[in-house]
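Can anyone check this?
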Amino acid sequence: MGAAEIVIVGGGISGLSLAYFLLQKNPKLDIKIVEAEKRIGGKIVTENVSGFLCEGGVNGFLSNKPSTIALAKELNIEPLRGSESSKIRYILINGKLTRVPDNPIKFFLSPLLTFSGKIRMLKEYFIPPIKENIDETIESFVSRRVGREFYEKLIDAMSTGIYAGDPSRMSMKSCFPKVYWLEKKYGGLIKGLIALKKEKKDAKAQPSGVLMSFKGGMSELIQSLERHLSSRILKGKKVLSIDRKNNHYSVHLNDGNSIDAKKVILACPSHESADILKELSSELSDILKTIPYPPLSVVAFGFKKEQIGFGTSLYGFLIPHRERRKILGTLFDSSIFPNRAPEGYVLLRSMIGGRRAPELAMLPDEKLFDTALSELKPLLSIKGEAEFIKIFRWEKAIPQYEVGHENKLNRIEQILSQFPGLYLTGNAYRGISVNDCIENSLKLSDRIMV
């Protein structure tokens, strides 16, 4: 198959955006993007079925990082702003959906926390910091600083909603680094927020910004990148292994061909990179295998608006583990963005599985659908049956940043230093969001072009 200056393995948002940024810096670069599947985009997939625009994975991105919006502008695609309804969010507390207040005063007046839970949260100001730079779980960090109730009712649900993970295993430092470093820099979270406000910086500890997508869904971003990169993309070509000779790499494909390249970037999931690298570096391969990817399924439902007694003008709701439910949460996609459902209909998406209940994600279709619907009906006062159903399954879904993740990254960088021209990128390492992937690709393009 010949040679290339750069081979990028993986046609998800990380690999595609990296190729785009590299070509912006040098349009003459000979780049090949090798994708094992017959479609590109990875876990960004949008399907229009019977007028319902369904996202199989991520449904948007926040406007708080400029790289994604800047990329969209360069690609001449217009970001779509989430509706006012996207600000209305609920959490299931003691079996009842309770609205999450959008300001501190409303929060203290709300029934989310008990009086003692609110007092414990305020005591955070006086809790001394742990000065050592330890890798603490989210459960331990939040319970220690803000109290057990705050963790169980709010942070547990938020962590599960983002990562589909288990906060008793997840690393606070790796998953929520900005919050983690508030304690280290300012001595506490409340002290940190006050200091940031004085410094006229963003005083919100949680991810901020406006939720954005595109008129045609998140796949519109992928399709636009594909138009720019189409001649460089090889679909349906699986990379089996890589070897290195005389400062060049040979990328071996499943069709028997090879591509020689000066630089190789693995932008595929870490478990796939592990298989590719096992002959080049068994230690690197073994480390990459230890990053968990639990299964997750997304069940999309279409209902008529009048079927949902709870109402439909909201972003959705999350469910803390303490509620012992079989779904992680549900998004009201048709209330967040326009044109997600036919007129008079509502599109819901429920998440099932994740780190704590992987077996549920792999239930047979009918059982999976029945499980999700049996949870939703009493919570949302749904009458009748769904008029539309679509299931998306991810056997290996979201990478988990568990305790020890930072040590893994440090060792990965040490090993990669032995292989000049070889790089790893993607959501397995330093951020799982679309924003993180694009921003990390932009930074990596600078490193590669030095």
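Reply from J.R.: I decoded it. Residues 203-207 have pLDDT under 50 and may be disordered.
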